[in-house]
Design a protein that fits this description.
Mean pLDDT: 95
Distance between the termini: 30 Å
Helix content: 40-55%
Largest sheet: 6 strands, parallel
Strand content: 15-25%
Order of helices and strands: EEHEHEHHEHHEHEHHE
Number of strands: 8
Radius of gyration: 18 Å
Number of helices: 9
């Protein structure tokens, strides 16, 4: 369900998805037309809804709450609503706002943690430090929402070990109950691709990626009573 167009941040050096798409917010009327179309063609079959585009969580809390009410009121078998969420979007919302959103049915955020390495976060122009990303993740966990995700290979060959260890530390501090990994791909038009073509960035081999993920997983520390579901089922992953 497209509620925003593009990405409000749109500066990450590895991402090309919205580079040529000016950010805008869909009107309530435009969103309602999409909901009505889905209700007409799918109706009772709709069980999960993803709020697009890049960071629908940038919308004001009251607007999101009104949207969630419309969705659960329209689709009788709806089980969950999810959204992308950047760390800055999360930090702008209070703990109370996050709890209200979770209680209204926003059950999972695809959280762009990417890495727990502040130096790497600066390089990829994420706009936050590792400490800020950890704080954002902890806020989501306190609300009871599920969250993901990290990017394997983001630090290249030179930064692989640091990326793995720092990200394991970040995840240990956040203590999520769900975590997923995808693998870095270089896309046309991105700064990271240009750095690769200029010899400034060395991609990890498939074996190097597997070793990085192994290092990452082996250094995560969670309390014995904390269950975390780890997934590596993204199409970009070798394993």
């Amino acid at each position: 369900l497209r509620v925003t167009r593009g990405c409000a941040h749109n500066r990450c050096t590895f991402c090309a998805m919205y580079k040529d798409v000016p950010f805008s917010v869909y009107t309530d009327e435009a969103v309602d037309r999409q909901i009505a179309m889905a209700a007409h063609y799918a109706g009772d079959e709709v069980r999960r809804i993803f709020l697009a585009d890049g960071d629908a969580f940038v919308l004001p809390t009251e607007k999101l709450l009104a949207l969630l009410a419309r969705l659960y009121g329209t689709f009788p078998n709806l089980q969950r609503v999810t959204s992308y969420a950047g760390p800055k979007d999360i930090l702008r919302k209070s703990d109370e706002e996050l709890l209200r959103l979770r209680e209204a049915g926003l059950k999972m955020l695809y959280f762009g943690l990417e890495t727990g390495d502040s130096q790497l976060l600066q390089q990829i122009q994420k706009g936050v430090t590792a400490e800020e990303s950890i704080a954002a993740g902890q806020k989501v966990v306190r609300s009871g929402m599920k969250l993901s995700m990290i990017i394997a290979g983001l630090g290249g060959a030179a930064g692989s070990a640091r990326h793995a260890l720092k990200t394991a530390y970040a995840v240990s501090q956040i203590q999520p109950d769900m975590l997923s990994v995808l693998t870095l791909r270089l896309y046309k038009g991105t700064q990271m691709l240009r750095e690769f073509e200029e010899g400034k960035f060395e991609l990890l081999s498939p074996c190097g990626l597997a070793e990085e993920v192994r290092t990452f997983l082996s250094h995560i520390e969670l309390p014995p009573n904390r269950h975390c579901l780890f997934r590596s089922n993204h199409i970009s992953n070798y394993v």
